[in-house]
Structures are given as C-alpha cells and as structure tokens.
Amino acid sequence: MSESSGASSVIALDAMGGEHMPQAAIDGALQAVDEGIEVVLVGDADRLEAELSRRGVSLRVHHAGDVIGMDDHAGDVRRRRDASVMVGMRLVKEAQAGACISLGHSGATMAAALLHLGRIPGVDRPAILASLPVQDGGFAALLDVGANAECRPNYLQQFAIMGSVYAASFLGRPNPTVGLLSIGEEPHKGTELVREAHALLAATPSIRFHGNIEGKDITRGTTDVIVTDGFTGNVVLKLAEGEARTIFSWIRDALSSGLRNRLGGLLIRPALREVAKLLDPAEYGAQPLLGVDGYAFIGHGSADARAVASALRTAGKAMRNKVVEKIRSGVASLAAAPPVSS
Amino acid sequence: MSESSGASSVIALDAMGGEHMPQAAIDGALQAVDEGIEVVLVGDADRLEAELSRRGVSLRVHHAGDVIGMDDHAGDVRRRRDASVMVGMRLVKEAQAGACISLGHSGATMAAALLHLGRIPGVDRPAILASLPVQDGGFAALLDVGANAECRPNYLQQFAIMGSVYAASFLGRPNPTVGLLSIGEEPHKGTELVREAHALLAATPSIRFHGNIEGKDITRGTTDVIVTDGFTGNVVLKLAEGEARTIFSWIRDALSSGLRNRLGGLLIRPALREVAKLLDPAEYGAQPLLGVDGYAFIGHGSADARAVASALRTAGKAMRNKVVEKIRSGVASLAAAPPVSS
Questions:
Q1: Which chain B residues are Cβ-neighbours of A144 within 8 angstroms?
Q2: Residue B183: which of A217, A231, A254 has the nearest Cβ?
Q3: What's the whole-number mean pLDDT along residues A250-274?
Q4: Which of A213, A333, B74, B265 has its CA 20 to 30 A from that of B250?
Q5: pTM of structure
Q6: Residues of B with Cβ-Cβ distance to A266 under 8 angstroms
Q7: How many CB pairs under 8 A join A and B?
C-alpha cells in the first residue's frame, strides 16, 4: 500500500471528470498550491498544458488519455485503464501520490479506488462519509451517503468505527458519540437492519454508542457520528442541502419585497451570507471513501474552483492526520474482539 | 362504514393523549368552534367539565375513562377499549362523528383506527401522509412517514394512488405528479424495493408517474407526491423539521451580534416570521391516516392549541373534499386493472 512504501504528500487531482473541468481543477489547484499543497493534475496533457500556458501559469500534469463521463457506467471503469480517475488512483497505488480526488462520476471513482487501492482488511464495504453542519457550528460525520444502497448490520458496525476515527481525527470531535439513524429512540423501533445493527453497536466496546437517533437529531448534533445505510444517508444528505437552498430562496424573496425588508436585508446580508456558508457543500469540497486502503475522495460533479480548493485542503488534512492509518488500527481492534453476531 | 350510514360533520378530538392535554385540546377546539367546526372532546368527563367550567366556556364532551400514554405499547390498545383514542374512533365507526383526531401515541392511533374503521378494500397497509412545504409556497404530499418501516413494492403503488387523490383533492394540486424517492434518477438506482416499485409505478395508468427523484427534489417541489417507505419518509420529515429549526437558530444568533445585525434583524423580523411559518408543523396540525376506511388523523404529541385548531381545520377540509370516498374509488380502479407484478 502507498503509505508503507514512502508517503507522498502530492495529491492527484482528476482534472477531467466533472461539469466544470478542467477549468475548475486548474483554478482550484492554483489556490491550493499557493497554500503549500502539492498537486498533480491528471488528464489530457495537451489540453491541460494549453490551458495552463494560455493563462501563463504552471502546474504539474500527469497524462491520462480518457475520461469517464457522468452518464457512463461505473462498471466500465475496469477496462478503461487510461481514464483520468483510474490513472489518479494508480498514482496513489504506486506511491507517486498520497491521495486522489475526483469530482466526476461517484460510482466510477469508488470502483477505481477499489480496483487500485483495495479495501482495508476487515472492512466489507467502503462508505462515503459526508461532514454535515450541526447546530453548534461544527460538523457531524454521516455515513454511508451512497456507496451501499443495501447494507448488512456488520457494515453499519464498521461504518461506526470508521466514522468515529474520522470524527476524532479530522472533525475535532474527541471521544465521539455514535448514533444509529432510526424512526424512534427505542431499540425495537425501525427496520430489521436497524434492530440488528443496534444490538451489534451496543456490543462494540471501541465505540461510544449513544443509541438510536431520529431525523430531528441530525442537524441538532445529538451525536458526532451518524451511521445509516447508503440509501437513507444519500437521501438525508441531498435533502439537507436542498432544504437549505429552499429556505434561503424564501428568505431572499421575503427580503426583496417592501422598503423595510429591503433595507433590513441590506444590513444583514453579510451575516446571512455567513450562515449560508455553514451549509454550502463547497466549503468542504470532497468526501472521503472510508474503508478504501488509501486516501481517496469524491466531490460534487458540479464543483467549482472553490470546491476544488476545499477538496484539496480536505485531502491534505486527512493525510496529515493519518486518518487511513487510524482506521486500519480501529478495524483491526474489532477483528481481535470476538464477534457478537454478523 | 361511517360515511354510508349518514355522514356526521362532528370531529371527535382525543382530548387526553399528548403532552399539553387537555388544555391544548380545549383551547384549540374553542378556536375551531368559533369558525363553525363541530367538535366533541373525548376524555375524562369530570376533568374536562371541571376545566371548561373553570374557564366559563362550554364544549361537547364524550366520556372516556382511560388514556394511552406516550410510553405505552401500541399493542395494548386492543384491550383498552375505554382509552380516549379508542372511544374517539368508535364514535366514527358508529357515525356519531365524521372524523377522529389524536395528538397522542401515533402507533396507538393507527391501531385504534384499524380496529374500529378497518382498511379500504384493496389497501394492504394504511400510510401516514405529511404535507411538506415546497419552494413555490405550496405543499407536496409525502408518504409513508412512519406507519410501515418496511414496505413491499405494491404498498408503494397504493401510496402513490392515495397520495395523488390527497394532493388533488386537498392540497390543490390538480393532476398531480408522483415521484419515487431514490438516490439517482435512473430506474436502476436504489434498493431492490425501489427498483421493483419503479416498474410497478411506471405501469400504473391512474397516476402521473414522474420517475425517481432524489433528496434534493423534496423541498424543491419537483413532484406533487413523493412515495417512499415509512422508514425513509419518517427520517425525511423529521430532518426537514429539524433542519429548519437549526437554520433559524443560526439566523437568530447571527442577528443578535452587533448593532448593524440587530437593527437589520428588527426590520426583517416580521418577514422572517412569515418564512418560518411556512415550515412550522403546527400550521397543518395533523396528518391523515390514508387507507383507513374513515377520517382518522394523527398530530404531534407536543401539539399546542394552535396545532389542535389547525388539525381540526385539516380534518374538516378533508371531509368536505371527500378524500376517503375518492381514495376508495381510486384504489378500486387499481383492483380493476390487471396487476403487472406484486
């Protein structure tokens, strides 16, 4: 694995996959490089070099002759070895880079990460973790948000361990609590999956299990980590982002009607902008693929330069905080304990 | 059934179940009665009469000697025939009332409704429908929000028909579109349940099936009806309510720091209050149990007088719009068509 064979602090950035590529990748990378982050752009070298020289700037480029489109099938990744996301993950495997970020096709990114980096021993299914803004101004770790639509109880147990490591080492939530998303606090509430996962989580000594939580607890920040299947988690993440947009559009409308509201709106615009920033996915830029044996990140397909720069910062911080190494030990400690059930 | 044996326009209100009872029931009922709605309070007659005479007001009371507490088991309902929610539903069955509302134990309310009113022929599982505020200022019909944690594809088909009737006849959404909540627009995305339900909905001529929608579409109002299993729907509803509270608490905090923000906040307070009202569950007060063969409604256990009055208005409007009768015909038309799969 990359980490053992000489850690590279270079981040391989898929500069082709995504709606605003390669422009957003170049602009975002330029911001990050200014902050001391090492980046290599992965993509069509001719096109990237032409774009860079047109702007009179310079960045490291690694050629990749193909790109997975947003409408392609994730299953095609295996035979498209020259696709930018495949080349980026290969750079991590070969220790030429320490992390890979793609803002393109999520399924293809996960597939490429698994093909080249594999899973951490003891992890059945990697999960996508989202950092969700909560009441106190910090973030809760929500996983899985879409890698596994259908889950088994032991996947959720592994998500709990990986999410706890991430919350402690990345989100600044020491000794994090874990909540199991359900439709009532009582252990008997919810689906069969949730009831079985509840028993398993309650019997996992390496996590701080709070018990079941409900939808209303998510943004309240009742727990630092929220575990759920990838179907529910994906709906939660996209609703949370969509509702914020809806509420701010209502507020904008309200503040544009009448002199009093327009004047008040003018005064509070900077403050409202700060609140809106709390909810802007571009602020964290990319989500880690936890359980993959290496640093791999997925961002929004619509990422702009700011989101790309945030994604690069996120990857850099995760590497500095040795998130993958810590997950490896966390999951190993689980394997050492006798399983209660599966 | 109640409707055929002489429709009563009286609403039986469980005045005991819930956190702020019986005060909230009395205050809410007094508001509704002022608006011409006929209400009978169901509960401990001595206590209710004492409370009414203390205030020097008068309301119809029907005695019920027992009440299901919020921590009781829904399964206990069957043998607690004198519980207020059981007596209320019995009044509907006996055509002494046209509808019953409880703001107490949800599971017990559903159980009591099923025991006394039964299911509409062709409905496998009744669902709880929530009216969710959407971008354009109206509401989308979301179901199921908690009656059935685990669902089969044909339940979702029935939810689609019942939700369409409700959206058209109650929410003012003529010829409503139906979205199936998933984690991608493509029919192959999601869980096995979603994929099978997609095929079934696409083959249901009596609904206007839009296809799969995602979490971000919920508050955007992409479709008028959103069908999902009761686990996902419950998480969605509670997250939507919780996130609105979180965002408004952030805004309140932001507007209390600094002279400029405090002044701006003062100016826009009325406008913001109007926006917050859009998201306040107390605005609609109660959610219908669709598929039950009669008018039955569940409200928040924390309902205050305003929520009770809204619930009474909601029940009255549903009866006037003959929602149950229309669902009966809608489901019958489904039974008449040959099933594609189950």
A1: none
A2: A231
A3: 92
A4: A213
A5: 0.92
A6: 264
A7: 182
